[in-house]
């Protein structure tokens, strides 16, 4: 609870830098560490012996040999797809038409939206994910539902009304004007209220007319501090479709760029099949990419190039329900496997950083995703021996990274011993 002071003890990985550039020591390990939480934030980090001596009267939560990390940050998800996760046998466009659009249609009912938003956020917390950037549906009530559910849980959530005015079924299309009006009203209602952040959300170029992309670009220009999220170059069929819908565009990114939807506060999901010009422009403007590995394998999209992380911010995400898991542990495992298929072994420190600080940086959020003084006390506590299979492998570990890697590769919500949101255990 806000105002309460508590000392958490256990193994810790303090965020001191970026392991992608600085090596594994950027996450500083202490096998007997402590985190002092005050007023919902991390006040101090240090050896457990020192902090217990310094704060003898502060209540303690002793997590033993469990590992205290920043809560996971899922930088791209669709909460309305919770109930259709793991739907069989389709690739992107058929998957949208067969499973996704019929389900998203149901969110015209505010009670259904509230039920799924609550179910979804509880699943996130059970998986140690404390923040998410989620698409909603075209219905403004779907945005209210997820922000209300997030506020009830104290969570920092990014979300926006998904705009579509073509190539979607009756009942699931807005117009250029209503997309602008509804998005603006929701932004005014929610952006910066508590821990809510509104995100301007054109679904992707195929489901927006140039007019709709333009008005959303204009809205973004009115609120340049807001994030804008969309999809980019996920599947080759999709890219061919974009080419036929926008014959004048130089490439997929240009369909956004030409309408004011390319910028440093842009979040571009997937970004697998990029042209050199697109990579250069994304890097030039300081945009962020979001890697969604379980989705990219599940719906057969392709292999993201993690080498791009040397040129721009890259976050990690489930892409629920195109992604096949709510768990950022499973997501890290899939990121590891995809990088292996491209000839790179991501270190456990890099995987953890991507799922916490990397995603937070993609969202331009400096006070989450870090185990560091001043950051919000949104935390996950991992049991590194949560199943017999993991325990027997971790028992052979020679160092902390070998102890953690089996949980990354084999772990799920059973590995989550505790989750804290703003210092409160949930
Ligand atoms: N592209 C446009 N919409 C979607 C979606 O809902 N999921 C995924 N994976 N890709 C998309
Ligand atoms: Zn998506």
3D structure, described in words:
The chain folds into two domains: 5-71 and 370-425, Urease, subunit C, domain 1 (Roll); 72-362, Alpha-Beta Barrel (TIM Barrel). Helix 10 (276-285) links the parallel strand 11 and strand 12. The protein is built from 15 helices and 16 strands. The strands form two sheets. Strands 5, 6, 7, 8, 9, 10, 11, 12 and 13 form a nine-stranded parallel β-sheet that branches. The chain has a seven-stranded mixed β-sheet with strand order 3-2-1-4-14-15-16. Helices cover 38% and strands 23% of the residues. The protein is globular, with a radius of gyration of 21 Å. The N and C termini lie close together (10 Å). By secondary structure, the chain is α/β, with parallel strands linked by helices. The structure holds guanine and zinc ion. Guanine (GUN) binds at residues 78, 92, 96, 100, 203-204, 231, 234, 295, 319, 322.
Give me a quick take on this structure.
Helices cover 38% and strands 23% of the residues.
Number of domains: 2
CATH topology of the largest domain: TIM Barrel
Count of separate DSSP helical elements = 15
Tell the overall outline. Answer: globular
Layout: helices, strands, pairs:
Elements: E1 5-15, H1 19-22, E2 27-38, E3 41-47, H2 48-54, E4 60-70, E5 72-78, H3 92-105, H4 110-126, E6 129-135, H5 140-153, E7 156-160, E8 162-163, H6 176-190, E9 196-202, H7 210-222, E10 227-232, H8 236-245, H9 252-257, E11 266-270, H10 276-285, E12 288-291, H11 293-298, E13 313-316, H12 328-341, H13 348-362, E14 379-382, H14 388-394, H15 400-410, E15 416-421, E16 424-425
Parallel strand pairs: 1-4, 5-6, 6-7, 7-9, 8-9, 9-10, 10-11, 11-12, 12-13
Antiparallel strand pairs: 1-2, 2-3, 4-14, 14-15, 15-16
Helix pairs in contact: 4-5, 5-6, 6-7, 12-13, 12-15, 14-15
The structure holds guanine and zinc ion.
């Amino acid at each position: 609870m806000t105002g309460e002071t508590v000392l958490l003890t256990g193994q810790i990985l303090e965020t001191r830098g970026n392991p992608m550039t600085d090596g594994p020591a950027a996450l500083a390990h202490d096998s007997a560490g402590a985190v002092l939480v005050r007023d919902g934030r991390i006040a101090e980090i240090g050896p457990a012996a020192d902090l217990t001596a310094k704060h003898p009267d502060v209540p303690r939560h002793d997590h033993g040999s469990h590992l205290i990390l920043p809560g996971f940050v899922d930088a791209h998800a669709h909460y309305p797809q919770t109930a259709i996760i793991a739907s069989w046998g389709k690739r992107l466009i058929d998957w949208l038409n067969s499973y996704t659009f019929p389900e998203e249609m149901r969110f015209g009912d505010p009670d259904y939206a509230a039920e799924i938003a609550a179910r979804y956020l509880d699943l996130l917390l059970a998986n140690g994910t404390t923040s998410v950037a989620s698409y909603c549906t075209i219905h403004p009530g779907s945005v209210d539902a997820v922000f209300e559910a997030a506020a009830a849980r104290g969570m920092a959530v990014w979300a926006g009304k998904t705009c579509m005015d073509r190539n979607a079924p009756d009942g699931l299309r807005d117009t250029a004007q209503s997309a602008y009006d509804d998005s603006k009203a929701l932004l005014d209602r929610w952006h910066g209220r508590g821990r809510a952040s509104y995100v301007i959300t054109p679904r992707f170029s195929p489901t927006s007319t140039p007019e709709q992309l333009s008005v959303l670009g204009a809205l973004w220009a009115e609120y340049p501090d807001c994030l804008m999220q969309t999809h980019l170059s996920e599947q080759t069929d999709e890219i061919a479709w974009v080419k036929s819908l926008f014959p004048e565009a130089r490439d997929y990114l240009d369909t956004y760029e030409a309408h004011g939807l390319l910028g440093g506060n842009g979040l571009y999901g997937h970004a697998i099949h990029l042209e050199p010009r697109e990579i250069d422009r994304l890097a030039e403007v300081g945009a962020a990419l979001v890697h969604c590995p379980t989705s990219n394998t599940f719906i057969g999209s392709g292999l993201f190039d993690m080498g791009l992380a040397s040129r721009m911010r890259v976050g990690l995400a489930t892409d629920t329900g195109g992604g096949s898991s709510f768990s950022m542990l499973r997501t890290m495992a899939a990121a590891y496997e995809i990088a292996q298929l491209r000839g790179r072994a991501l270190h456990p420190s890099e995987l953890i950083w991507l799922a916490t600080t990397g995603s937070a940086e993609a969202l331009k959020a400096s006070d989450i995703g870090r185990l560091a003084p001043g950051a919000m006390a949104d935390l996950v506590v991992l049991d590194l021996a949560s199943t017999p299979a993991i325990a027997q492998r971790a028992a052979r570990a020679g160092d902390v990274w070998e102890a953690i890697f089996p949980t990354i590769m084999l772990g799920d919500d059973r590995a989550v011993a505790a989750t804290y949101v703003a210092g409160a255990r949930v």
